[in-house]
Design a protein that fits this description.
CATH architecture: Up-down Bundle
Keywords: Cell membrane, G-protein coupled receptor, Membrane, Olfaction, Receptor, Sensory transduction, Transducer, Transmembrane, Transmembrane helix
Strand order of the largest sheet: 2-1-3
CATH topology: Rhopdopsin 7-helix transmembrane proteins
Helix content: over 70%
Distance between the termini: 70 Å
Subcellular location: Cell membrane; Membrane
CATH class: Mainly Alpha
Transmembrane segments: 25-47, 59-78, 98-120, 141-164, 205-225, 237-258, 270-289
Strand content: under 5%
Protein name: Olfactory receptor
Radius of gyration: 21 Å
Shape: globular
CATH superfamily: Rhodopsin 7-helix transmembrane proteins
Family: Belongs to the G-protein coupled receptor 1 family.
Length: 307
């Protein structure tokens, strides 16, 4: 008889996004095209912000880090998923599964906290402009950056530790195209009610509270700028609208996946695809397309290196 906490399973079989071969090839081509068009844009954003002396404001500092986080996040799931589309048997080792899960929530948690920091930055800039340079000084920005990395690490390591304590003795088929908490937990050969509850509090409650906090903060900001001058008002509204769009793209799928009991729903895989592959690469692009300063700098960098 195996001891309670001993892991018997050494690998998991991923059932993938769909069992249809034609659909797999279609999704493979679409994601590959999207991946190789949008991903370089994220690195261009980072390079532009770091190389342009005019983009030193905290807003651009955090935007550069968002692009870096999202680009890193996109490497966790997409490359392996593309390889698995062409494989007959989609297998991931137990350690590989835990590693994927850790980095998924480490970077995802860090990004969620980064959006909170960016909302705080906009609140100070719009509602407390005279205190902006004092509050959002370089030292404070780096401290916030360190805090969000630490927050993402703590958020992720708690989940990993809880999963490592579970026994896995079969079956070993994960009904998804990557390793995530809801599917992995359901394979444990023990009662997981308490662990699921802790996971919902850790991921679900954190996601929901961040979302509601951000929604409230932007509502306050938009109310405060109603009486501003036309030029300043339009710029502030444009910036806040961009943040709100990204906020819904980031937290909407997370709330759907993590704030409910871990039961399979028909839309789970599609939501997970957008949450782990599509939206992370789009977030910095949405910011950039609505920011004239960054667009102008990117054109200069592109023309300089293409000349």
């Amino acid at each position: 008889m195996e001891s309670k906490n001993r892991t018997v399973i050494t690998e998991f079989i991923l059932l993938g996004l769909t069992q249809s071969r034609d659909m797999q090839l279609l999704v493979f081509v679409l994601i590959l095209i999207f991946y190789f068009i949008i991903l370089p844009g994220n690195f261009l954003i980072v390079f532009t912000i770091r190389s342009d002396p005019g983009l030193t404001a905290p807003l651009y500092f955090f935007l550069g880090n968002l692009a870096f986080l999202d680009a890193s996040y996109s490497f966790i799931v997409a490359p392996r998923m593309l390889v698995d589309f062409l494989s007959e048997k989609k297998v991931i080792s137990y350690r590989g599964c835990i590693t994927q899960l850790f980095f998924l929530h480490f970077l995802g948690g860090g990004e969620g906290l980064l959006l909170v920091v960016m909302a705080f930055d906009r609140y100070i800039a719009i509602c407390r402009p005279l205190h902006y340079s004092t509050v959002m000084n370089p030292r404070a920005c780096y401290a916030m950056l360190l805090a969000l990395w630490l927050g993402g690490f703590v958020h992720s390591i708690v989940q990993v530790v809880l999963i490592l304590r579970l026994p896995f003795c079969g079956p070993n088929q994960l009904d998804n195209f990557f390793c995530d908490v809801p599917q992995v937990i359901k394979l444990a050969c023990t009662d997981t009610f308490v662990v699921e509850l802790l996971m919902v509090f850790n991921s679900g409650l954190m996601t929901l509270l961040c979302f509601l906090g951000l929604l409230t903060s932007y509502a306050v900001i938009l109310c405060r700028i109603r009486g501003s001058s036309s030029e300043g008002k339009n710029k502030a509204v444009s910036t806040c609208t961009t943040h709100i769009i990204v906020m819904f793209l980031m937290f909407g799928p997370g709330i759907f996946i993590y704030t409910r009991p871990f039961r399979a729903f028909p839309a789970d895989k599609v939501v997970s695809l957008f949450h782990t592959v599509i939206f992370p690469l789009l977030n910095p692009v949405i910011y950039t397309l609505r920011n004239q300063e960054v667009k102008t700098s990117m054109k200069k960098v592109f023309n300089k290196h293409m000349a």
